[in-house]
């Protein structure tokens, strides 16, 4: 079982103020103090990402995706040290004509590699965006095909411990495991780890803007990508064109305080959206006729798994913590509800009727569903095997902003949140950042002053970046506009099949129409249960509209891409 990470560019203009802290909005547009020419004068060599054949499941037009890379200083504070990193990027240009501008993208995490993200907009047929703009995918420093950091397997330390077990021995194990994980990640990440921060990354992005030949860039960032977008706007306000921040962290505070909303957000999504939906289809899943009855079934299954984990075959064991992880993963997007409910029903059969033919069939069904369910949460819950992703997540969240957590406060705070929000409220006790030796990083707090209007998109029942934190960020970030999606809980909204949201976003992003005030759109309906006997194919599921799920599926199908 893996540790749960709850998240989630005419005339060539020169890069502005890459080495300063937060420049004023009146900084000279061609100012490049201290940036060595060897960075400014390099060129990205673009080549087809798929030179031989398109991956199965990729949409027509994917052959236009081009891959490349550029060099950036390992430490933007000392670029003359001549110690470089590689940043891997992609671009998807219009099929006809020249693009009107460049849209940088980020799938969140933080730490999620994003070079396949442009293909999501192609998969979702966002024609207005694709016909007018150049969409740029980026593997941020630390992850993907960019220069990597590593935890050396340390992110898995203590991953199988049950956070609900509050015996002193287990509490000590969880805290000691988090401390050891921090040590592994910092040791294995080496000197680069000190410079895997949002501050360093946004300076990479501004160099990319310069290399793309853009005086200004637009941006679409999901989840942890909202944090990055807000900081880019803070450091380089005069480079901001149209920025869309979707599924928002509370980027005007610390990572610690932003993540503190998650236990409430996951519990609300679980109880208000998923459980009543399962109860509505009790004739299909037989888990209970009310949301509370379904929750009690989950608690009963969990208790039995806590007593005795179940072998699902082929080296996979279902434990109580893995059940929690699976549920938390599956509620990120409503398209996973049918698979999630079916898995819970199969597990109910497995623990109630062990050693039967029905139990053996149930074990196989759950084992086959697990990759889909954990993948659905990318990048908030991390099921992928790539070590660079968790390492980048920890380096960014632990380096960026200070934490006040101690061993005693973690015990106290998770006892309180666990009793109130049991789905994930107990697990913050394994906070790696509490044991992190943080480098000397001091970033300005984003406040929106001097920044052109940004558009924030937010669903009311988002589990990973809850509405409470997003609303606070909106109120503290001057001149922002919020598009609230009511009767909705998906994490990742734009380009997910909501016509109202897509229209508002693209009027802003492509046409340049800034909403005069905050707006709202209604959410999309919850799905129907899957038909019995439906087969899972290794392709991008047409009903999987969530952009983060599509991105995860495409990454799985495509694999490594050329620099």
TrEMBL record:
Q: Name one Pfam family in it.
A: Abhydrolase_4
Q: Name one GO molecular function term.
A: hydrolase activity
Q: Does the keyword Mitochondrion apply?
A: no
- Positions of region (Disordered): 521-541
Signal peptide, first to last residue: 1-27
Question: What SUPFAM superfamilies does its record include?
Answer: alpha/beta-Hydrolases (SSF53474)
In terms of domain of life, where is this protein from? Bacteria
Limits of the Peptidase S33 tripeptidyl aminopeptidase-like C-terminal domain: 429-521
Q: What keywords were assigned to this record?
A: Hydrolase, Signal
Similarity section: Belongs to the peptidase S33 family.
Q: What is this protein called?
A: Alpha/beta hydrolase fold
